[in-house]
Amino acid sequence: MTHWKETLQDSVTKPATLARHFKFDYTVLDNACARFPMRINRYYFDLIKEVDDPLWKQAVPDPLELEDKVCIPDPLGEERLSPVPAIVHKYPDRVLLFVASECAMYCRFCTRKRMVGSSAMCVNEKSIEEGIKYIQETSSVREVLLSGGDPLLLSDKRLNSILGKLHSIPHLEVIRIGSRIPCTLPMRITKSLATILGKYHPLYINTHFNHPRELTAEAAKACARLAGAGIPLGCQTVLLKGINDDAQTLKKLFTGLLKVRVKPYYLFQGDLTLGTNHFRTHSSCGVDIMKQLIGSVSGMAIPTLALDAPGGKGKIPLTPDYIISTGTNLIFRNYCGEICTYPENGTPL
Ligand SMILES: *Cc1c(COP(=O)(O)O)cnc(C)c1O
Ligand code: SF4
Does residue 338 sit in the same domain as residue 208? Predict the structure, then answer.
């Protein structure tokens, strides 16, 4: 089997290379590609079947990225919430720690599109040390989320060192890693990586699959390896127009994730990130999909649909409306649309 580093090395980064495999006018992509980097590693590239299919749309630039007149570079206000460059501290008890600036593939809808994969994202040994020091000195932080960029693109040695330092902080109770690598470069999940990660429990990984076609045998093997090391796996999916914005596709994805031991965690409404407006759905689209899924598929397969509020105001769950009225009785609709009654405590039956 080829080493993951070779698969990553063998990445498509120029539109002209795409044109060797697919028939289309690649010159229209040059500007978008110069503004926001493209990297499609060999593994993910081989999953693309045709121009404009759901995997193509996630990986290949679109001229529309430069025509976005609505969105803004940092919609979640992360820069304002950053006490030191490697940390975003929004909620009282948990922080993001940026440990990497690169990814195995650059997703066109990325929330940190303004900096991921470019020199605008400055992550180095010094910034990470500073971030760890901030956590050591901030006793309200009980959970750290390693993010970036993709933390699992770091070397085993580097990850081991960072995780070791975090693990020894007494008030830090949980380590969480956000990584798209089980989906985009599953061969990176080697036995030795799983062994290292397994030393730092309680450690959780939230991965990121957006389409059932990403659930390959290789991805399943990567997830099995992580789960086998005792790591609970979650998935943060992004709702993307023209890619997965229908109930059938998401049902297949979410039930498929359960089969590879990944629990769907969040389904995100698109952020207002500059260059991604063409992926955004109306908020009613996600709510309507949730309505179709809740009750008709396993509750284990149902994520929370969430909107990350602009300006760093936090994640807001968007839930279908079941309640019709409140008072002496709670009147509501069930998943089939039938009207039901629940008498409140104190209401005579
Ligand atoms: C999303 C996010 C978290 C984690 O939120 P959960 O609801 O616990 O998954 C933490 N910090 C920041 C800045 C975030 O954006
Ligand atoms: S893997 Fe995550 S951080 Fe990296 S480009 Fe994709 S969405 Fe952005």
Answer: no
